[in-house]
Structures are given as C-alpha cells and as structure tokens.
Amino acid sequence: MDVWGRDSSRPLRGCMNSQTRKDKRSADVGLIFNIQKFSLHDGTGIRTLVFLKGCPLLCTWCSNPEGQCFVPELAYNRNKCIGIHECDHCRPLCEMDAITHAADGKVEINRTLCNDCGKCVDACPSKALTLFGEYITVPDVIRIVEEDGSFYARSGGGLTLSGGEPISQPEFSTNVLSTARSRGIDTAVETTGFCEWDAVRSVCEHANQVFFDVKSMDSEKHRAGTGVSNELILENLVRLRKEFRKLRITVRTPVVPGFNDSREDIAAIADFLSRLPIPVQYELLPYHGFGEPKYQQLGRKYLLGDVKPPSQECMATLRRVVISEMNLTRTEA
Amino acid sequence: MAQVAELARPLLSPQEERIERGEPIGLVSEEAQRKRARIHRMLAGFRDKPIRMNLERAHLLTESFKQTEGQPVIVRWGKALAHILRNISIHIGEDELIVGSAGPPGRYAIFFPELEEKFFTQEARPSEPDDSLVLTEEDVQVINEELKPYWEGKQYHGAFINALPDDTRRILELYCIIAPTATARSSLAWNHDYEKVLKRGIKGIKAEAEEKLASLDPVNPKDRVEKEPFLQAVILTCDAIVEFAHRYAKLARSMAKKEKDAKRKKELLEIAEVCEWVPENPARTFREAVQSQWLIQTVSRLEQRIGGTVGNGRIDQFFYPYYKKDIEEGRLTKDEALELVECMWIGMAQNVEIYTAPGSLSFTDGYAHWEATTVGGVDKDGKDATNELSYLLLQSKKEFPLNYPDLAARIHSQTPEPFLHAIAETIKEGTGFPKLFFDEEIIPLFLSKGGTVEEANDYCICGCTEAKMINHDAVSTGCAWTNLGAIVEMTLNDGKLKLFGDQQIGVSTGNPRQFKSYDDLWHAFCWQAENVMKHTFTQQYVADTLKAKFIAAPMCSMLHDLCMKECKDIHDGPIDGALYLGFIDTLGFATAIDSLAAVKRLVFDDKKLTMAELLDALDANFEGKEAVRQMCLNAPKYGNNDPYADSIGRNIEAFFVKLTRKYKSAFGGELDIRYVTITAHVPFGAVLGATPDGRKAGEPIAEGVSPSQGADKKGPTASLVSIANTKASGYKERAARLLNMKLSPSAVAGPEGTRKLMSLIRTACDLKMWHLQFNIINKETLIAAQKDPEKYRNLLVRVAGYSAYFVDLTPQLQDEIIKRTEHAF
Ligand code: SF4
Ligand code: SF4
C-alpha cells in the first residue's frame, strides 16, 4: 500500500511523478482540473462544480480519471491533433524526447519518458495537448464561482466541490467553502469519505450539503473495485451523521454492473443507512462509460470497456429494494 | 469518485418520442384527439398538400389599378382592395367553424405583383412535379402576359433602385453587404389593433370616418387633397370588409340548404349568423370575437404583404372578456374555445410565405412566417396580466402540432410561478415554443423612446423578435440587414471583398499588413463600418420617402389611432405624434467579435502570428494552414463570459449605437441596432472568405446575438452573462437581440429539470435579456433527420425567432443548427 493507503499493484503513473515534483498545494492554493458551470445534477439549483485533483481511491469505473492523481498530467486528444504535416509544433519542444511521430501522421506520447512538464501544451495550436490540473488560489475560485451569482439566487444553487477527492486538499477546501459561505453562497461537497476524520470534519463543517459515496458494504469487494477497504469510509459516515445532526447528507452509490448491481449489494447498503441515528437521503446512480475517452487521452487503459450501463429495469428493481429496506414512504431513492 | 453528471442514455423530448413512434401529424395527446376530434381531422394530411399560388388577388388588383390610373394612391388601393374583397373566390371547408381564407383551399401562397420583381425579370416557369409550390401553365401565362406587362416599370422596387445615389446602388446590388428588405414587402411585421374592431365593429370605424369627412374644412386644400381621399378610401374599405363577411354568410346558408348532415347544417347556419354580425358590429361572444379577428387578418393578407405576415397581438388580453363571459354564462367550454382558436391556427398555417423578390430568397428559410401571438406580461397598469386564456393558449401550443402561430410569452419579474411552470413544460415539449420576451428590458427601453407607461406596458410581440406599441409606433418600411462579417473582411482587405477581386467596395483603410497595433485595426474596422452604415441609412431614407408613392394600406391605416387622427396612410410618413422605431440589423455579431479578438490576441498581444501569416492563411482559406486555423479557433470567444472577447463586443455595439444616435431617419425616427438574422446568416456567410475567428470561406456567420456556432463552451449561464456584458446599456438606440439556446432533453428532465429551466428563465429576466428561445433536442435526432427526411418530416426546430420543419430547411442551415452548441451537463 502506498502513502494513500492505496493498493500499489495498480499504481498511477502521474502519481509516481508526484514523488519527484514540487507540490505547490497549500491552504491558499489548490490543484483543480475543471470548473463547470450550469451543473444541474449535483445539489440544489444551478451550480458551479469545482473539481479538485487527486483521489485516494482508484475506482475502476471512475469517469473522471484526470481527477485521480495529485499532480498536473499531460493529456493528448488524438482526434484534435492536426498532425505533423500541418503542425509538428510540439515535438521539438520536448526535452524528454517523449513525443514521436506516429504512423497515421499524428504524434505519440511516450508515457514513461514524459514528466508532465507541460512545455508542449503552450505550443499546440489545436489544444490536442492539454494539461489536466491547474493551481488556483482561493480568491480566484471564488471570483469564478460568483460570476454565476444571479443564477444561484434564482435557483437556490451555489458551489459544489467535487473531484477527485476535495477532502484530500482539506485546508484549501475548507478555505474555499468557508469563504463562499461567508459571502452567502450555498455550499456542497462530493466525497468518497476516505480521508482522516479531522479533515472530513473541517471541510464538511462549511458545507450545507454533503454527497457521500458508499460503494459496497463488502470490504474485500470494495478493495477490489476501488483499491481501498471501506471501514474508514463507513466510520466517517457514522461520525459525520452524529456530529452534524442538521447537515443534509445524501449517500450515493454508483451502480456498476458486475460490481454492486445485485439486490444483496444494494440491500446491504440500504440496511446500513437505515440504522443511522438520523436519516440520510440515498441515491442510486447508474454507471456510464462516458469517461472512457479521457483514459485514452491520459495514455491509460480503461478496464470497463465491455461493461454496459445497468438497464432501466435493473435500476428500477434496485430502487424498490432501497425503498423497502429503508422503509421509505416516498421515493427518496 | 464517480461523478455522474449525465444520465446513461440519451433522453428524448416528447416531440422526439412521437417521431420515434412514427405518429402521423395530429393533436398530440389522445385526450385532445378525442375532445377536439374536428381539429384532429382537419390536421390529417395537412402537410402533404401542395402549395398553390393565389394569382386571383394579383389579377383583381391589376384589373382595378388599370381603372384608377392617376388617382390618389390611397384611393387606388382602397378601390383595389374593395374590388378584391367583392370578387375573389371564397370557400368554406369541411369541418371549418371559423371561416375566411386569402387563397384557394389547402395551403397557398399569395402572389404580390407590386413587389415580385424577380418573377418579372427572370422567366417564370411552371413547377416540376416535385416542387412544393404548384405553378401551372395558366399561372405562368397570367404572370407573363397579364401581370408583367402592366407592372413592369410601375413597381416600388425599380423606382427605389433608380433613386439611390450611385455608390449606394452599387453596394446594394452586391446583395451581400447590405440587404435591403424595404421593397420585398409592403410593411414590416405588423399587428393590427384588433380590439378596436371587436369593441366598435367596422361600423364604428366607418362612422368615425364619415363624421370626420363631414367636419373637414371645405376650403382648406390639405383637407381636400389629403384627408378627403383618405377618408373616402376608409369608408370604401369598411363597406367592402362587411360585404366580404356577408359573402361568407351567404355561402354558408346556401351550403346549409344542401347539407344532409343535421349537425353540420346547424354549424353552417351558425357560421352564417356570426358572419352576418361581425366584423360589422361589435363582437358579443368568444366565437364572434375569434371570427371577427380572423376576418380582419384575412383581409390584411389580401391588402398587403406584411413581412413575417400579420401578428395576432395580445390575444390572451383582448379575447379574455368574451371568453370569461361565455364560460361564466355556460355558452362555452374550454375545449370549444380551444377548437375555435385552433381553427384559426389552421387558417394561418395554410398561408405560406414565398419570397421571390431579389435578394430575399433564402433569407427566410423554411417558409417562415410569424403570426406572433403574445401571452402573459404585465397589463397597462403594470400588474401581471396572466389569465385562464393565457394557460389555455399554452396548452394548445403543446397539443397542436403545426408551427403556427408563433407563440411568444412575455416574462416579467412577477410572472406567476404556475405560469412560468406551464411555459417551461411547453418548452420541454421540444418544438421551440414559446419564445420568451422580457418585460424588464423592453418596457424601460420603450419608455425611454417616448412611449407612455400604458403603451410600454401593453407592448406586443410582432414579427420574429420585434415588439410594438401598436397605436404609437408607425414604422412600416422593411429595414436592412448589414453584414458584419463583410465589414471584417474589408477591414483586413483595404475595403475589398475576395469574391469581387480588386473592386473597391468599402473605403480604403490601408494595407492591414502595416497595422502596428490593435488600435490601427479597430480604427479601420470603424471606418469600414461607418461607410456601410452610411449606405444603410441612405437606402432606408430613400425607401421611406418613396414608398407612399406606390403603396397604401387603407385597412391597416384605419385601425391605427394616429393615422385616423391625421387622416393619413400608414406608409405616408411622417405622421404627427408617431414614433418611428426603425432599426438596422447587424448580422454576424459574434463573428466580428471573435475575429477581432483573435487578431488582437494572436498578432498583437501574444505575437504568436504575424499579420502576414494570418492574412496568408485567410487568403488560402486555411488550406495547408490548419495550425493557424486552430490557433484562431482557440483564441478567446464571445459567449464564455470572457472579458477579453466581451469587451470587444461591447465596443462594437457602442460604436454602432453612438453612430446611429447621430442621425435621424426620413420620418424623424431612430434607427436602432438590432441583432436578428432570421436565416440571412447563411447567404451572408456564403459570400465571404475565411475570417480570423477560424470560420472557413462560405460558412455561415454567427446568428443573432448568439455566440458563434459551437464557440460557447462554458455553458448557457456564461453565454447569458456575456450577452448582458456586451450590451450598451447606457444607450436607448437598441432593439431586439435574438438568442438561441440548445439544451439536451436530459438537462431538463423530470420535475427537477422543469424547476431548473424556470430558474434559468428567471435569471435571464434578471439579466435583462430581450429574447430567448430554446431547442430541447438531441443532436443525434437532427443528424438522423438529415439522413432520413421522410421519417422526420414533422420535426420542428427553432430557427431564428420562429420554428420551422427541419426537413424544409436548406442543408447549410441544417448543418448550422446541428453545430450550435448543445448544453447537456
Ligand atoms: S509534457 Fe513535457 S515531457 Fe511530456 S511530452 Fe510535453 S514537453 Fe514532453
Ligand atoms: S502540436 Fe498539437 S496538433 Fe501539433 S502535432 Fe503536436 S499534438 Fe498535434
């Protein structure tokens, strides 16, 4: 297991680089990989999602693989590359000789040589080369988030920190959320729950709503799917529920065929949730494969290529399981 | 962690679902089909009918004109209209309850010989079997042998062209820098004051004219030469309108005599009774009100071509008292009310607009016409005006499958939540209705332009995005479109366009390769723009002052307070007390912003390219210069709330409004800056070379005030903020800004999605947008429709201020709609 408690049999190349590169993150500066406005499915109203980069888990189904490792990473979008006959701006710039010509007239990135320095990115006219990961200060995040202030006012929306794992940058996330809240912006966090309790507490204290993932009650299965076991996650959820009695907590389970799409899997989670001292909301989200192209762009393999999204019938069945397990009267699931 | 922002499968809008199920055209819900079986029957096969050309109006007009040579224009038009109304063939269709048609049964287009110059300069030919418009051998004969010999040399268009200064004529004749629309139609989009007819009856208007006539000063030459002929024409017109209605009554009675079916017999007798009473007398019931309004519209269609055709006005307001009374007194049910208005919708859908005048072809794609119908908004007192009828009209829009009428909803800060909910649910249907207009922007602007509080509060939508204060505004001359893309090209080409080689079209602003700074570029742009505007102003002035020598509209005028007061035809400005809120459309706003932003960023700020490298790439249409094009495409773009681009947009707008503020139109009005493209951005783009925003030669320029196709990458909120940021809010010389937004059905799915759509609309109101319309559709559906037009022939999409059948659009426009960014998230 690595420093993140992660199964080192599936290491992330980028994160290997993190051993050798200076970490610029601090309480005032965070590493993010995207800010997405007009987000409609991650909290109340029209929201802005800030995606923090780096995650202690390594879920096979992750749809944001660019959010997994803790340093900026080079992405190469082959479709956008206009090829060496038109361009070839990038190759001469690479000090690591990581860029080579490919047979189809485009380029190839040698991922063992590339150190994600980003020098080639500026030269690429078509944005085929981009760097996932940008350091940003708290005031800059707040400024961008506030651009959509009038939409929050009308829709009851606000800021949602997502990732990656936002709590893996606990001081920065705490700062962003507390600043936003002090300026009247609704706050929410999406978390895996796999972080030290103090960090979880410090961040969630400033959130009006927390989306908390529970992927499986079976620790071994959990480790196989995500790289870590689930004890810390479940423990954190219980503590969070107990310490923040008024916090809106929504537990989410990505339903991944072959991993947790059986009635038993979902029933076990629902059962666990129904025993919490104060109720939480529970949502099932169907797995989707939209993240696949980003794996290619990062030079990684997508392990779930053959997995189809769960059928509507399957989702409906599982939702019924949740309703009966949790004795819900209305469809909160 | 898994962040699931989208649903796993593309969700379909209700419209898409119906097409997938292969449903034929008809009312969309089974309940509606059952309750309004009549309408469902009338709709069957509606779009299969070919379009016939109504040449009868042209024939009668010409016949009358031959008799009235040399008489005052208003008298000639009064006599001609009366001749048409007395002699044109009339018919009452099976199932019809509301009668009146300006053409043969089924779908028809009207031929306007006073305007259709192109039919005369080019050889008219009979239609081919596949053409949607039927033109028979006899039709062609009438055009060539009867109409052409008379009208040649007598048309407004020819006189207009001859009267232009040489340099203006030259630039106009290129048809791609400035497109005049004045002579392709007799009037801009227009709304009559129907309420006047409903309340007073034609009888009342005639009495007013007679009174005025009696009180004219018999010695005053102005009274004798100007006012008397006007009033005589009005009286003649009033009589002819009443006779027209009575002809329908007579026909209905004679049909009733022969009718075997007792139920239909009764209906026909009712039709006769209604038409014997209205529009001559004030309406007493909802049915009479609808019939009266519809007959006035029908006459209007025969009187003159109104660009975008004649609007319906605030029908949820002026029909409401009749509706309420009938419902309360048990004379009418909601379904019967729907049936009556839907009979009228079918009447509107039957009249197709076909423009053949030079330059106007393909500027309005998809047989565009807009019987703009306004619901919601505030009343004259400034209170919310929504009533039961407003909801009913929304319901009809959801269930009635044709793209007529064009429903417009006025939104204000206190639009009731349930009404907004009904609007959002209707938008989600996916057919592009209703389009939205925002009182918080339009009312203050109208006040600043001289409207009274009551008039401004009571504005109605007119045409695709214009708004009108119907008894105060008197601008009726079609306004010109100008091509901002061409201005960009001339800026970078010393006043020349590649299409025309070395011909000096604009002013000479120097070799762009020598520009030292962005300021140099900006000044050249301003010079070119000022020169184009000079010609635009000029042609408008000429068109305004010349029109009244050719065209008059007695009915349109008698329904306008100020025309009656002054005893003057609407086209014969200036009319005392009238506001002339004309405009100039500047097309390709985003193309211009993005082009200037790209040059600024790449050449002057970041120095990634030299001006020579950029211009060479443009000359080569980016062939072999893909890297340059990619840089251009990735330069800052308008629509992303990026101050770099948006501030350029703000400067462009400010430049134009400051310029237009300096000059008055012929009738003392203003020419506001407007961003409405209809579909002209396609032909306007077709003539241009590559532009520095990365657009290739021939591709469409940007549309309305919308960001360039596909350039708005940050989502709809950022686009809306950009649009707000580029507006020169400190000036009143502004007009409509058309904005299209495409959302995927999944983004607004379910009750939660409806709520979010509602809050998006509320925020657009806060941001003081003028107009906003949605396409809720999957990109895949559009691509499939291009491949399989048969299956998708009933697919409606929002084009530009109106909805049209996707398969009726040109391939270029279809591509452009597909390319508009779809916001999913
Ligand atoms: S990121 Fe740096 S090392 Fe990697 S390919 Fe680009 S220039 Fe080379
Ligand atoms: S610079 Fe970009 S577009 Fe050019 S060859 Fe390299 S990756 Fe491709």
From TrEMBL, chain B:
Protein keywords: Lyase, Organic radical
Q: Boundaries of each PFL domain copy?
A: 37-696
Q: Which GO terms describe its cellular component?
A: cytosol
The keyword Magnesium appears for this protein: no
Q: Which InterPro entries match?
A: Gly_radical, GRE, PFL_dom
What positions does the domain Glycine radical occupy?
703-825
Q: What is this protein called?
A: Glycyl radical protein
Organism encoding this protein? Candidatus Abyssobacteria bacterium SURF_17
